[in-house]
Design a protein that fits this description.
Strand content: 5-15%
Radius of gyration: 28 Å
CATH topology of the domain at 6-93: Double Stranded RNA Binding Domain
Order of helices and strands: EEHEHH
Distance between the termini: 77 Å
C-alpha cells in the first residue's frame, strides 16, 4: 500500500452549489485536489501506469489527477473526501493484477460434454409427433 505525502497534493478551494443555504454564496467549500502522478517520487513505475489508467477521465494529458469534492457542506470534510478518494485509487493501483495461465479442457471433460449433448439430443428428438408409417 502506497501512502501519498501531503506535500505532493495541491488543493484549490472554490464556491460550490448544492446544500448550504446562505453559506453557499459566501464560503468556498468545494475542493479540487491535484496530484502530479507522472512526476511523483512516491510511486513506482508499474503503480503509476495502473493509477493513470484507473483514473481515466480524471487524469490530464500531463499525468495529473484531478479530483473534485463537493459532497459535504464544509471545506474540511470535502478535503478529506478528496484525499480519501485519491488514496482509494492509489490502493487499487498498487494491487498487482494476477497473471492468468490459460488451460485447456481435459479429454474426460470434452467426452462428458459431448455425452451430455447426445443425451439431450435424444430427449429432444423424442418430443416430435409420432409418424404413421
Amino acid at each position: 500500500m502506497t501512502v501519498i505525502p501531503e506535500d505532493e497534493l495541491e488543493f484549490r478551494f472554490f464556491r460550490a452549489g448544492g446544500p448550504g443555504g446562505q453559506n453557499v454564496n459566501k464560503v468556498s467549500t468545494s475542493v479540487q485536489l491535484r496530484f502530479d502522478a507522472r512526476n511523483s517520487p512516491s510511486l513506482t513505475d508499474p503503480v503509476r501506469e495502473r493509477l493513470l489508467k484507473l483514473a481515466g477521465s480524471r487524469a490530464t494529458l500531463n499525468g495529473e489527477i484531478l479530483i473534485t469534492a463537493v459532497r459535504f457542506r464544509t471545506q474540511e470534510r470535502n478535503r478529506a473526501d478528496a484525499v480519501g478518494r485519491l488514496q482509494e485509487l492509489v490502493d487499487q493501483a498498487s494491487i498487482k493484477p494476477v497473471h492468468r495461465v490459460p488451460t485447456r479442457p481435459t479429454r474426460a471433460s470434452k467426452e462428458r460434454r459431448l455425452e451430455g449433448k447426445s443425451k439431450r439430443s435424444t430427449i429432444k428428438s423424442g418430443r416430435g409427433k409420432p409418424r404413421l408409417d
